[in-house]
Amino acid sequence: MTDTSQLTETRMREGVWEGILAQPAKPDVRVTHREAELHDVTVTPEGEGLWRVRVGVPVDTLSDGVQTYLIADTETDAKLASFSIAAGDVLSEDLRAEVDLLRSELDMLKRAFRRHCVETEA
């Protein structure tokens, strides 16, 4: 595997993560979750120098919190990509929830400021 290998995620659908790997020769990849190897992994030709990598996410690996899956080259152990799945109560403390809350508060402040400007203009 060369340093020019690039694995790009294309989608996650029905429990299957998919990506396209740009590399001249057929890759030998390994996918792990918490150091345990996943077995539902396929690599198929997609075009010249392109390979479709499909990873079936086992239901028993899903639980509250963030689950991270690592895709690596079997020969060199080089990381090609990773993906994460977040679920459960941990999301209420997630940064995205905080950003959403900040947006709501900013909208409230904008309305109050506009109302203040209209009231002081008159």
Describe the structure.
- With 122 residues, this protein is α+β, with helices and mostly antiparallel strands.
- 22% of the residues lie in helices and 44% in strands.
- It has 1 helix and 8 strands, in the order ββββββββα.
- It has one helix at 95-121; strands at residues 6-13, 16-22, 29-33, 36-37, 41-47, 50-56, 65-73, 79-87.
- The strands form 2 sheets. A 4-stranded antiparallel β-sheet has the order 1-2-6-5, with no helix packed on it.
- The chain is elongated, with a radius of gyration of 22 Å.
Topology:
Layout: E1 6-13, E2 16-22, E3 29-33, E4 36-37, E5 41-47, E6 50-56, E7 65-73, E8 79-87, H1 95-121
* Approximate strand percentage: 35-45%
Please state the CA-atom Rg, rounded to the nearest Å. Answer: 22 Å
Instruction: Bin the helical content.
Output: 10-25%
Order of strands side by side in the largest beta sheet?
Answer: 1-2-6-5
* Mean pLDDT rating: 88
Task: Specify the structural class.
Answer: alpha+beta
Topology, number of strands: 8
Q: Specify the number of helices.
A: 1
Which spans have pLDDT < 50 for at least 5 consecutive residues? none
Oligomer: single chain
The major β-sheet equals: 4 strands, antiparallel
Terminal CA distance reads 71 Å
Provide a compact summary of the structure:
The protein is α+β, with helices and mostly antiparallel strands.
Observed structural traits:
122 residues; four-stranded antiparallel β-sheet
